[in-house]
Design a protein that fits this description.
236 residues, alpha+beta, Phosphorylase Kinase, domain 1, D-amino Acid Aminotransferase, Chain A, domain 1, 5-stranded antiparallel beta sheet, 6 helices, binds guanosine-5'-monophosphate
Length: 236
């Protein structure tokens, strides 16, 4: 499948049209940003790693009954996906307290939550992706009740599947972010699932194996991305 004109360029990915109006190519860049674009950098070969990891994790959640936009990984940096009308929401799942939740409520990172929390943010860089309630989403007509129910059910399945998968590999899935969209009237999981969008801690040492190494200048960023890629995808 050949790349057509550029459709959209984001912080970590570029979308290209294809000859099929229902399909687009998602190109994974090495660019890394954090804190709403205030910190910028490059993580060498991040695009290649994130494309591989996302493909493997999308396949895993598909097996658990979650429909995703993945069609196939085309090459190192390109994934063929179904075209989505993306909902303007970030769906965040938290199993342990970390990041924004720790800051917002003045809590220590690492507290195990009694039950997972699913929260929604309005995807808007200029506003800093503010927290939004389901009542707001429904009142604004950004999604229907049926779509929200479906999306929560899919999110719970993703959390159960990936928490178990990473636990068996020796890692804690602390939190992650999902994005969903509509394709021919159906809600599909879109975007990516990788170390840019998840917090993963090594169980024994609590070593951070994700983008927090870049956000917090912890060093060993590429090594952590490569190590998790080998664990998730096997060493091809
Ligand atoms: P927090 O809200 O604590 O910053 O993030 C919670 C989880 O969602 C983390 O795993 C983080 O990587 C992911 N996340 C939240 N917002 C974004 C975002 O705008 N971009 C990316 N790549 N991940 C996000």
């Amino acid at each position: 499948m050949e790349k057509g004109p550029k459709l959209y360029e984001g912080k970590a990915k570029i979308l290209y049209e294809t000859e099929n109006p229902d399909l687009v190519i998602q190109y994974f860049k090495d660019d890394a940003t954090a804190f709403n674009n205030q910190k910028r950098g490059t993580i060498i070969n991040k695009g290649i790693v994130n494309n591989k990891v996302s493909t493997a994790l999308f396949r895993k959640v598909e097996e658990a009954g979650v429909k995703t936009h993945l069609v196939e990984r085309l090459n190192d940096r390109e994934m063929l996906v179904k075209r989505l009308e993306i909902l303007p929401l970030e769906v965040i799942v938290r199993n342990l307290v970390a990041g924004t939740m720790a800051r917002r409520y003045g809590l220590e990172e690492g507290i195990l939550l009694k039950q997972p929390v699913i929260e929604f943010s309005y995807k808007n860089d200029a506003l800093g992706d503010p927290l939004i309630t389901i009542a707001h989403v429904l009142a604004l007509g950004w999604a229907t009740k049926e779509e929200i129910d479906l999306l929560i059910d899919a999110t719970e399945k993703v959390n159960a599947t990936l928490t178990k998968f990473f636990d068996e590999k020796g890692f804690i899935l602390v939190d992650f972010k999902l994005e969903f969209g509509r394709h021919k009237g159906e809600i599909l999981l879109g975007d990516e699932i990788c170390q840019d969008t998840m917090r993963l801690w090594e169980k024994e040492t609590l070593k951070k194996m994700d983008k927090d190494r870049f956000r917090r200048d912890l060093g060993g960023v590429e090594d952590a991305y490569n190590e998790m890629c080998a664990i998730v995808c096997g060493t091809e």
